[in-house]
Write a structure and sequence with these properties.
heterodimer; A: Rossmann fold; Rossmann fold; 2 domains; seven-stranded mixed β-sheet; 21% strand; B: alpha/beta; OB fold (Dihydrolipoamide Acetyltransferase, E2P); 26% helix; elongated
Chain lengths: 330, 462
């Protein structure tokens, strides 16, 4: 299996194409995903390869589209439903939270809902308050859903293929700034398991648990820290639910310090869960300082590009927090 | 005229100092030049000699509190002088942080003390709960018998951090090395070389007062100094070390730990490799071992490396024999087959896989193994544990990443004809790790080349 450089968006498109080639039950739904190629050009020319029956443009109704996708999944299809922006999930919450997440449970396991929903998420594109949020923690709060946040093209393809094969609803949050990021992606079919974090950088003095775009910021910060003699480990959480506790616990037991970095609003966010999970775990007795969170500011995302940057953690914020934590000043 | 003993200035910028330990108790005779007590500053620990000969009395300088430079901390009365009534109040601490620096040493004989030793004992001790310390610092303090109340934390608002505890433990260890025998004990000065009492008195034991084997730990040899701790491999147990020890003639204390699901610890559950490491650390803590030489075979080698890389114990050296955890492959046919084996044919067949020359497997060795496994408990426990460690021909844990930061002498021994774990896994370790590859040996060099392995062990357990 050879590997080449693909962008994150291309990797997702390739995963969908492979799944559609292999399994005729797999089809795509979403607004402007056909001839237009999708709001972020992720579906691209798939409509030409697979036709409008399998790459279906839906009306501007997230509730309607999500409902049809959930229904199709219950009848045995493998739909992949694209939201133009993850923010519009608000319109489809009934179908996701009350229907897709609960149907297997309420029908005693008689049905499953193998739907995949794709959510372009996050800030940094100047799309303002209603098109820039990071809402993954909302979905992580719902038993019955799986919630993933791949951070690399390799993982985007492998985790999407794992999601398509999964018998339960999987929500995939794709940070919009990652779409153009390139990285090595193997050809052909492979999967990256849901529920398994990845240690992106080994370190001994501090664990930085990060998600999505923050993984890359944390890795950049780790390089700066290394130049100062601070050896940080970076854990890419990859899955919000079910969370890979073992990997994080093992890392914190090794380093004795934990910094959580995530773009969603800090209060009640993904890092809050990681932080509480560690405080309750066997890793507690290994902590040599407070657990620190860096998350989004308690505000809607501003339109002004400077303010937009200021309200989410940036590399220097991570460097400063890590430095204070390791030197015992925090 | 009695001689005043003052707290001297031992550092340029020093306004106050802290007595970390008295080496002579109140009422005892001292000779000019004897080490009286130890001062601890931010930078160093320093021993202070007696300025005169006589009897030490009126000790007012308490351990573990800040005392102004120049303050009298005790008096020495020459022969014929009568000590003043010992009613002097202890010098108040500069910041009032009372607390013991070390537990009182036990009285080793029945002699009544001439003067009560209470003045050199802690005057009240603050409950640990009221102290600002990180969870790790608290855990280390428990394990290394360091009193948190006596420490000045370097973290925000005086929070005690792991490094503060480690520094205190190191100071205690250095004091032990520099002050061989003089320990205040109620009415009794222990004999020179009374290692257990001394170790206890400085607050960080190299060996417990009485070395009592526990359910999962066996003292195979008694002796003085830093103990050697042995950790057996998967499917093995304490008894497997005896052939090697016949060739290892050091009179050092040697402790063997049975891993969960093995030997005497057959009924202890474990959910994976981390649990084995935690078990070893807790056995060491239970034995009050803060400093040790570690040696392990196969799975026990990986556990020893993980323990050495951790903070639970200060490893002075590390010997790994055919260690697991260095690479992905393992012969799970063996681990599964051996784990299940409990009759002679099955056992002999799998044991032959362990060695290059089956002749080294004496009937006695095989029969002892057979007897231990005959009731089925060990096979059942190891069949449960095995797949959590090794399955799909894969080792499910790795310690390879830990070697870079192992600062003690490390030797790795492997057999080139090992049929359980490929010997090539020992390649590519950091340069400071000594690798000894015996081309013709299998997975048990300590059995097949016990003299050579014992010699390599002796080279690092100094």
């Amino acid at each position: 299996m050879t590997t080449r450089e693909l962008s994150y968006a291309q990797a997702i498109q390739e995963a969908m194409a492979i799944a559609m080639e292999a399994d005729e039950r797999v089809f795509l739904m979403g607004e402007d995903i056909g001839v237009y190629g999708g709001a972020f050009q992720v579906t691209g020319d798939l409509v030409e390869r697979f036709g409008p029956e399998r790459v279906r443009d839906t009306p501007i109704s997230e509730l309607g589209g999500a409902g049809v996708a959930v229904g199709a999944a219950v009848t045995g299809m493998r739909p992949i439903f694209e939201f133009q922006f993850s923010d519009f999930a608000t319109l489809a919450m009934e179908q996701i939270v009350n229907q897709a997440a609960k149907m297997r449970y309420m029908l005693g396991g008689e049905v499953s809902v193998p739907v995949v929903m794709r959510f372009p998420a996050g800030s940094g594109t100047g799309a303002a308050a209603q098109h820039s949020q990071s809402l993954e923690a909302w979905f992580g709060h719902v038993p019955g859903l799986k919630v993933i946040q791949p951070a690399t093209p390799h993982d985007a393809k492998g985790m999407l293929l794992a999601a398509i094969a999964d018998p339960d609803p999987v929500m995939i949050f794709e940070h919009k700034l990652l779409y153009k990021m390139k990285g090595p992606v193997p050809e052909g079919h492979y999967t990256v398991p849901i529920g398994k974090a990845e240690v992106r950088r080994q370190g001994s003095q501090l664990t930085i648990v990060a998600t999505a775009i923050m993984v890359h910021k944390a890795l950049e910060a780790a390089e700066t820290l290394a130049a100062e003699g601070i050896d940080a480990e970076v854990v890419d959480l990859r899955t919000i639910r079910p969370m890979d506790k073992d990997t994080v616990i093992a890392s914190v037991k090794k380093t004795s310090r934990l910094l959580c970095v995530y773009e969603g609003v800090k209060t009640l966010g993904v890092g809050a869960e990681v932080s509480a999970m560690i405080a309750e775990s066997e890793a507690f007795d290994y902590l040599d300082g407070p657990i620190v969170r860096l998350g989004g500011a308690e505000t809607p995302i501003p339109y002004n590009p400077e303010l937009e940057k200021a309200v989410v953690p940036q590399v220097p914020d991570i460097v400063t927090a890590a430095r204070e934590l390791v030197s015992g000043r925090r | 005229m009695p001689t005043e003993v003052i707290l001297p200035k031992v550092d340029m910028d020093m306004a106050t100092g802290r007595i970390s330990r008295w080496f002579v108790e109140e009422g005892a005779a001292v000779k000019k030049g004897d080490v009286l007590f130890e001062i601890e500053t931010d930078k160093a620990a320093m021993e202070i000699d007696a300025p005169a000969s006589g009897t030490l009395a009126n000790v007012t300088g308490r351990e573990g509190v800040d005392i102004p430079v120049g303050e009298a901390v005790a008096w020495i009365y020459a022969e014929g002088e009568t000590p003043a009534k010992a009613d002097a109040a202890p010098i108040p601490a500069v910041p009032s942080v009372p607390g013991p620096a070390a537990p009182p040493a036990p009285a080793a004989n029945g002699a009544a003390p001439a003067v009560s030793a209470s003045q050199i004992e802690p005057v009240g001790s603050e409950p640990v709960a009221g102290i600002r310390a990180t969870p790790l610092a608290r855990r280390l303090a428990r394990q290394r018998n360091v009193d948190l109340a006596a420490l000045d934390g370097t973290g925000p608002k005086g929070r005690v951090q792991a490094k503060d505890v480690e520094r205190a433990a190191t100071v205690a260890a250095e004091a032990r090395e520099r002050a061989p025998a003089v320990v205040p004990a109620a009415g009794h000065t222990p004999a020179r070389g009374d290692v257990e009492v001394r170790a206890r008195a400085v607050g960080q034991a190299t060996a417990p007062i009485t070395r009592q084997s526990s359910a999962a730990s066996t003292w195979l040899r008694q002796g003085e100094g830093t103990p050697l701790v042995l950790i057996h491999g998967f499917g093995s147990e304490t008894a497997s070390w005896r052939p090697l020890l016949t060739a290892f003639d050091r009179a050092m204390p040697i402790l063997s730990i049975d891993l969960p699901g093995h030997g005497a610890a057959v009924d202890l559950p474990a959910g994976g490799f981390d649990d084995l490491v935690a078990h070893v650390e807790s056995e060491l803590a239970a034995q009050n071992i803060g400093v040790a030489h570690l040696a392990g075979h196969s799975l026990g080698g990986a556990a020893a490396a993980a323990v050495a890389a951790g903070v639970a114990v200060e490893a002075r050296s590390l010997l790994l024999i055919a260690p697991a955890g260095l690479g992905p492959e393992i012969n799970t046919g063996f681990t599964e087959g051996f784990a299940a084996a409990h009759d002679e044919t099955a056992l002999r067949t799998w044991m032959r896989e362990l060695v290059a020359d089956p002749a080294v497997l004496s009937d006695g060795f095989v029969n002892a193994t057979l007897r231990a496994r005959a009731d089925g408990r060990l096979p059942a426990a190891q069949t449960r544990l095995g797949p959590l460690l090794f399955s799909q021909a894969t080792q499910r844990f790795s310690v390879r990443g830990l070697f870079e930061r192992l600062a003690m002498p490390v030797k790795v021994i492997a057999g080139g004809a090992d049929r359980i774990i490929p010997s090539r896994h020992v390649q590519g370790l950091p340069g400071h790790v000594g690798v000894h590859l015996f081309a013709g040996l299998g997975h048990m060099p300590q059995l097949e080349a016990r003299e050579a392995v014992a010699r390599l062990l002796a080279e690092i357990v100094r």
